[in-house]
């Protein structure tokens, strides 16, 4: 049983606000549409009841006192490929007392390192301190169950509150300059409106973006964008005071089974001998050498948009393909634009980061392009591949902000597919990462999970739009969770991408 990161605990004191004279900030300036309301309902998380403030660490979920047991009952003690394996998880607090309510964020996988095999489990919350992890049995041989408590339910309460109260805790800045006068101002999607603002709301997409108005310069003199500091002192950590009592595992009752919902999603695939195999989707091919990849990409233009997890794909392709030459455009190191060409095979691969809120080093403000606007420039067609990944920089805002960004991208994708139905669109989902306390506050896996559900729902059922399920591919792999997954996982992701671009001839 693993704990990914220290528990987040609230103290009684009101969080210290990074901005003095803080005013109410409303990041969702519009009324909710029916779709937005439905999406918010679909990701509603179990509320932790009766949380006394301050939350005392001793009553929060403690992996050291929590246990799981593999259920033999159903399988009669043995399993066959094609069966399901279930593990019953009981969560206890630091004093060893069983938790009476749900809402903990758990992930689970079944794996065997010698076989290079792994699959993500589906975790069901029984809302009473018990959870079930369900795994399909997909390979013959050994397997080990691993359950990870990403956050105790109490931490989820804090994370949710932080997005309401401190949506601007990741700070952005812009430099304004005219002649010898220069000023640096704070910018964000939502700012307390207690001083004049420059309004950079995008006219095509309606995406809001504001900076405080410089004192001596006008709003047109903005020249750059970069990430500032991240407010850290929003809450206090309490110290561990665990009492060493073991939690008695109570055996499973029948009604627990009955509460299991049957329609939870199947895993997208699994690893076997280190290679990703899709379940219920297209066959994944191995593109093991440069010539196989180049052959697949011949005559293609691949447009990549998004965050650094998309840039990794660009970097991977330009590393493994010796004939794909990166052109030095003197771009910013993180945001691009980047371009790589193989003129002999007529391959062009491009990367451009998404618009604010992009957490980047200094980038020219005229290079901040919204993905949907970029898509509006594409003619599209059977030689065009669009790939994007937009998730990691939206964690600090209310989900509505992310929903609206995706709605505008979806509209652009639909227009693109209407004018050029042969265009292939591939979306890389979010993934789990290594979490320190600081990272959790701005980029917790719980934020990613919530947004990931929205992303999948938003693009579900669109023809010629495919997913690379980075979430499952990172969770199922034996390598540690990482915002930027290590090369073996990236190689598998690229195999999935290339399998969409170059599907097998007979199926
Ligand atoms: C947290 O709360 C406890 C109990 O109210 C208090 O004793 C402690 O000083 C607080 N910690 C901080 C850093 O404010
Ligand atoms: C934000 O503004 C919208 C539209 O005016 C309103 O419907 C919503 O309730 C507001 N949210 C909060 C937290 O005040
Ligand atoms: C910002 O500009 C947009 C587009 O012109 C407008 O709809 C919106 O009301 C403006 N917001 C503020 C706070 O001025």
UniProtKB/TrEMBL annotation:
<feature type="compositionally biased region" description="Polar residues">
    <location>
        <begin position="8"/>
        <end position="22"/>
    </location>
</feature>
<feature type="region of interest" description="Disordered">
    <location>
        <begin position="1"/>
        <end position="22"/>
    </location>
</feature>
<dbReference type="Pfam" id="PF24536">
    <property type="entry name" value="NXPE4_C"/>
</dbReference>
<dbReference type="InterPro" id="IPR057106">
    <property type="entry name" value="NXPE4_C"/>
</dbReference>
<dbReference type="InterPro" id="IPR026845">
    <property type="entry name" value="NXPH/NXPE"/>
</dbReference>
<feature type="domain" description="NXPE C-terminal">
    <location>
        <begin position="285"/>
        <end position="502"/>
    </location>
</feature>
<dbReference type="Pfam" id="PF06312">
    <property type="entry name" value="Neurexophilin"/>
</dbReference>
<protein>
    <submittedName>
        <fullName>Neurexophilin and PC-esterase domain family member 3</fullName>
    </submittedName>
</protein>
């Amino acid at each position: 049983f693993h704990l990914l990161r220290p528990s987040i605990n609230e103290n009684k004191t009101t969080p210290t606000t990074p901005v003095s004279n803080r005013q109410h900030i409303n990041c969702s300036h519009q009324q909710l549409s029916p779709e937005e309301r439905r999406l918010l309902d679909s990701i509603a998380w179990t509320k932790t009841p009766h949380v006394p403030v301050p939350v005392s660490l001793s009553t929060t979920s403690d992996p050291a006192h929590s246990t799981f047991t593999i259920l033999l009952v159903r399988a009669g003690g043995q399993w066959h490929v094609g069966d399901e394996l279930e593990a019953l998880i009981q969560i206890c607090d630091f004093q060893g007392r069983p938790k009476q309510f749900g809402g903990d964020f758990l992930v689970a996988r079944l794996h065997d390192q010698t076989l290079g095999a792994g699959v993500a489990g589906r975790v069901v919350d029984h809302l009473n301190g018990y959870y079930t992890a369900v795994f399909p049995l997909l390979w013959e041989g050994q397997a080990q169950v691993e359950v990870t408590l990403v956050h105790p339910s109490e931490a989820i309460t804090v994370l949710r509150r932080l997005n309401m109260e401190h949506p601007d805790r990741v700070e952005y800045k812009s430099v304004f300059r005219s002649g010898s006068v220069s000023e640096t101002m704070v910018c964000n999607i939502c700012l307390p409106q207690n001083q004049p603002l420059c309004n950079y709301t995008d006219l095509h997409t309606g995406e809001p973006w504001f900076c405080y108005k410089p004192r001596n310069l006008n709003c047109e003199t903005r020249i750059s964008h970069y990430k500032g500091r991240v407010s850290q002192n929003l809450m206090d950590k309490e110290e561990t005071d665990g009492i060493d009592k073991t939690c008695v595992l109570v055996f499973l009752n029948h009604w627990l089974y009955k509460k299991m919902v049957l329609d939870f999603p199947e895993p997208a695939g699994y690893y076997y001998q280190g290679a990703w195999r899709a379940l219920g989707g297209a066959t994944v091919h191995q593109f093991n050498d440069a010539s196989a990849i180049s052959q697949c990409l011949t005559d293609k233009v691949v447009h990549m948009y998004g965050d650094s997890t998309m840039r990794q794909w660009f970097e991977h392709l330009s590393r493994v393909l010796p004939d794909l030459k990166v052109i030095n455009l003197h771009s910013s190191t993180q945001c691009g634009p980047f371009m790589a060409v193989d003129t002999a095979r007529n391959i062009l691969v491009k990367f451009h980061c998404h618009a604010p809120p992009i957490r980047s080093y200094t980038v020219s403000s005229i290079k901040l392009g919204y993905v949907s606007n970029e898509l509006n420039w594409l003619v599209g067609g059977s030689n065009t591949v669009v790939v994007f990944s937009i998730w990691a920089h939206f964690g600090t805002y209310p989900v509505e902000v992310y929903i609206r960004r995706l709605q505008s991208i979806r509209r652009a994708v639909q227009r693109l597919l209407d004018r050029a139905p042969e265009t292939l669109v591939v979306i890389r989902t979010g993934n789990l990462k290594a979490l320190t306390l600081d990272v959790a506050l701005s980029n917790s896996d719980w934020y990613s999970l919530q947004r990931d559900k929205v992303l999948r729902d938003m693009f579900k059922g669109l023809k010629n739009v495919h997913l690379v399920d980075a979430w499952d591919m990172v969770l199922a792999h034996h390598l540690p969770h990482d915002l930027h997954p290590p090369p073996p996982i990236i190689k598998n992701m690229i195999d999935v991408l290339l399998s969409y671009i170059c599907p097998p001839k007979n199926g």
